[in-house]
Design brief:
- With about 200 residues, this protein is an all-alpha fold.
- It has one domain.
- About 40% of the residues lie in helices and about 0% in strands.
- It contains 8 helices and no strands.
- The longest helix has 19 residues.
């Protein structure tokens, strides 16, 4: 099994940090795609050779393009949405945590949800501890008040073991985490163990 060599939980914890009235100001009433508690009807394996062509931690242009193409195909098939629109050269200059921050915010804003507004060092540290231990972060250690004046209004963690890069982790959470996918805990479509939460909620 291949493991994503970074703290993918950091992004999910960070994505849940909204400051004061930023949520109300940034959220839109219109959206496209599926929002929590809804989910795609089924999982969809990547329609590209992403997992067979890219090794763990491969965050190069070719693998990012394979993942982005797979995300676009899954969005079209499962949600009737267009693909993600971003600059791959600019994306490639970011750290993996920053890349995941961008990708999750694209998933959120393209559905009319408020973006996460900052990366949090304190939440990243908690998430990194979980990643190093090979399990979800210790959610009880997530502070209500953050350094810099922010506050945690919601926290969730999503695991992405075996996916090659931040785009791959996003693919797993959004399109291959339900019935028929790689989530071994998802044994029935109605199970609460299917589909990642926190990204589009």
């Amino acid at each position: 099994m291949r493991w994503l060599p970074m703290s993918v939980g950091a992004m999910v914890l960070t994505a849940a940090v909204l400051f004061g009235s930023a949520y109300g100001a940034a959220a839109s009433t219109a959206h496209r795609g599926i929002l929590f508690p809804g989910h795609p009807a089924r999982s969809m394996a990547p329609g590209t050779p992403l997992l067979s062509s890219c090794s763990a931690g491969d965050n190069g242009g070719a693998c990012n393009q394979l993942a982005l193409t797979a995300i676009g195909a899954a969005r079209q098939t499962l949600e009737k949405m267009g693909g993600m629109s971003l600059s791959l050269p600019a994306y490639a200059k970011l750290t993996p945590s920053q890349q995941l921050f961008v990708v999750v915010n694209l998933e959120r804003t393209e559905r009319g949800l408020a973006p996460a507004v900052v990366l949090s060092k304190s939440l990243n540290a908690i998430a990194q501890g979980g990643a190093r231990a090979g399990r979800d972060p210790a959610m009880k250690s997530v502070p209500r008040r953050l350094h810099g004046g922010g506050r945690t209004v919601y926290a969730s963690a999503n695991w992405a073991g075996g996916w090659v890069n931040p785009f791959g982790a996003d693919y797993a959470w959004m399109y291959d985490d339900g019935p028929g996918g790689n989530n071994l805990d998802c044994r029935a479509a109605t199970s609460r163990l299917c589909w990642a939460t926190g990204i589009t909620s």
